[in-house]
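Shipment paperwork, digital attachment
Item: protein structure file
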Amino acid sequence: MFHLLYLYKGDFILFNVFKYITFRSLGAGVTAFLISIILGGVFIRFLQKRQFKESIRDDGPVSHHSKAGTPTMGGAFIVIAVLGSTLLWVNLTSLIIWYVLLFTLSYALIGFIDDWLKFSKGRGMSGRLKLSLQLVFGFLFVLLVVSYMNSFSMVVSAEKVQNVPFTSVVLPFFKQAVVHMGWLYIIFALIVVVGASNGVNLTDGLDGLAIGSIAVAAATYIIFAYLAGNVVFSSYLQIPNIQGAGELAVFMAAVGGACLGFLWYNSHPAEVFMGDVGSLALGAAIGSVALITKQELLLIIVGGIFVLEAMSVIIQVISFKLTGKRVFKMAPLHHHFELSGWSESKVVIRFWIVSLVLALCALSTLKLR
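Attachment content:
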């Protein structure tokens, strides 16, 4: 739409709005929401007909046993909504957008294969194989991004701007605080994108929990991407100026819109689960945008819920192997609170509240610099 309609701005002045990232972001969000809503009903009926149903762990909370038989792999229509909306509204000459889209789709493919094996073979791919594929695709993505984004701009003073190697990490809360990592950045970047993807995957255990938290993170990175791509705002706020990052705001808006559309069906009691095809892809999308906008460290705050969920699993495994005792009643963390007497809806809503507070804390760093 950007390329077709903006060409006629001379004949129809209304089409001039297509040059604005804010307008196209809004359009992408609404479009993704509508696609997700429309496809959702169709997909759910298809999944029910094909018997793509979720199996529930026997050792989980008793209240979850009623979820058995709920269609899964609903994340497929989230990915379609994000892809379709992004291609409609984004500037297609932006190479970085294609990198992010292909990376997101690669993780969606890993999740789809895992979900398909669970359905057809009774068990998904091994954890080692899944992680290996994530690392391979993640490594290729990071190499492409680093080679394409050789540097980014940082304001040193009111009169001076300097270029900083892209293989550097910007420290939040401080002005012009940059750590040059060199090729060690590849390892750091891999941890960011793979960690984000698996963090979302582990959080996807209650109706609406993961998708609502992702929507909050997506909304936060819409702001970061827009500001990073705007020379005036990035200079004023003294944050990295990344050429072409503004288009990522359109992509993030599509992610947020698709998440809200999916939440329509995933809210308690859920009519469909997203499966690995959705959780791995959405985590990859958030992680990749955090990487490109140079807000990697802030992802720890923005995605604090995902970090806590992942850490609860790591702590539980280490504790059990070393001492034979469990720190939590059950991991990931949301199950611990369920077994502590919280209702599912209470856990979800309270985790959403925490996500919103953490997002606001992350955005506050824009002025604390």
